[in-house]
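--- STAGE predict ---
source: upstream dedup step, 1 unique chain passed
mode: sequence only
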Amino acid sequence: MSQTATFHDLKGKSVFITGGGSGIGASLTEGFIEQGANVAFVQRSDSTAFCNEMESKHGVRPLFIPCDITDIAALRGAIDTASAAHGAVQVLVNNAANDQRHSTAEVDEEFWDWSQAINLKAYFFACQAVIEGMKSKGGGAIVNFSSISYMMGNAGYPAYTTANAGINGMSRSLAREFGPDNIRVNALAPGWVLTQKQLDQWAEPSALAAHLERQCLKEHLAPRDIVDGVLFLASNTSRMMTGQTMVVDGGVVTTG
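--- STAGE serialize ---
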């Protein structure tokens, strides 16, 4: 990736990213490394090869902690491990999610609970786990990934869109509760970002063309477009911005 901006205050910061070894998450990890941050991330799949790539490319190795984020005890343990290595977490990016397609009729309790565990519950408990450390550092920044999917009223994954809406509500409440501690909590809602997973599973030509038609900016989103938004929300450049949802989608939905 090539940098479009430098956020000097991110240098040396302790950053924790969920799902930071693949897709948008891998681009986030690299983006923070480029800023000079100390990055730890959790990923369920083996990310050793990705860490090797980052070390070879940047001379810095991110801290990979294998973890299933639905195991809250393991997630808390991973945050403790990251804090022991890099100091208390100052920037948390809740990025990991699963947008498996499903219809309402086929959802049972087990699937519902699984979807909420990944897409909402883990976000809350990761936030809870970093709060005291952020207080000890005089503040911090949390960026929770949502999606424009629920804003568009999309069908095809109602459990996922329910969680996306919940993330916005949670972010606003936590921003209000912890603002006095100088902890900022914002959400970022990406549009359709063409990661390899999207290209492999859903990005067939007619769907891409239809979505591009809905965008004001006639160019498909790449992971770098999302990384820059997250870096902005994590840095002091956005120091008086909290409780907000920032949309990065090329102009599909409107807010305000």
